[in-house]
Write a structure and sequence with these properties.
Blueprint: E1 7-11, H1 18-26, E2 30-34
Length: about 40
C-alpha cells in the first residue's frame, strides 16, 4: 500500500532547478525550497 506523495522538499536549489520546480508545480505537487536562492522567490 503505497502512500501518495503530496509534496517534496528541495535542498539547495539553484537557478538551474527552476524548470524542475515549475514542472512539480504544474503536476500539483507542493514543495519547500531550502538553502537556495529560489527559497525566497517561490
Amino acid at each position: 500500500d503505497r502512500e501518495k506523495i503530496h509534496g517534496v522538499i528541495v535542498f539547495g536549489a539553484e537557478d538551474s532547478d527552476k524548470e524542475l520546480l515549475i514542472r512539480l508545480k504544474n503536476i500539483g505537487l507542493s514543495f519547500i525550497v531550502t538553502n537556495g536562492k529560489l527559497g525566497r522567490t517561490l
